[in-house]
């Protein structure tokens, strides 16, 4: 059944931004672009003149951007430059491009070896975002839309992305987290997740044993870069009935080895798992 978006309330529900919000975003982008054109710094008055915005508007937007790390004052304190957080965002974007390029050949090999769908994902907050996949004609094709977000606690990808956290860090990270019960097998507490991750570190890969979808099993492993940080995760997913205990072990070893190879291509040298003290 089609849903009408003809009324104002429905438009808002459909995600159409108010004109005032669009204007604020546009003005913010104007400021950032002008700052980018002046790497040595530019004063508030000059920003106002070049963007055509009132000084009070420029000051308000700069204050918010500075608070979030997107803008910083010059050493003299008379002007503004782009902040380090923009550099971090740019690096994350560039790393994701490099990651997909380096990972894809390995993903194809893993798909061919297992005859199942292989996913590549990043962590965003307490969610997992799929950024790439490879699959065969007969492999699992559910929830395979790139950009899909899934919970971090009940997926092999999510667990792999959490493997470097100590018990204390996990308690702090997940203190306000809602452990949504997706199936009867879903982990629903920090204690259970900590134990699950402990076992995963020992075996070398993570398992989603029908925790996110009742008919699906997955195995995953983390990917690191030159800095030794976990930057992504890779998984093999399939219909639960095709993942016997023997197959889980076989696919788990393959996904671990594939993650190690992608990590090597991303500049990492060392073991895939690193315990935190």
Short summary:
With 277 residues, the chain is an alpha+beta fold. 45% of the residues lie in helices and 17% in strands. It has two domains: 75 residues, Arc Repressor Mutant, subunit A (Orthogonal Bundle), CATH 1.10.10.10; 175 residues, 2-Layer Sandwich (Beta-Lactamase).
What keywords describe this structure?
277 residues; alpha+beta; Arc Repressor Mutant, subunit A; Beta-Lactamase; six-stranded antiparallel beta sheet; two-stranded antiparallel sheet; 9 helices; 17% strand; elongated; disordered N terminus
pLDDT averaged residue by residue: 87
SSE run: HHHHEEHEEEHHHEEEH
Give the domain tally: 2
Number of helices: 9
Could you say which overall geometry the principal axes of the C-alpha atoms support?
A: elongated
Strand order of the largest sheet: 5-4-3-8-7-6
How would you sum up the major sheet?
6 strands, antiparallel
First and last CA, distance: 55 Å
**Structural class by helix and strand composition:** alpha+beta
Query: What is the helix content?
Result: 40-55%
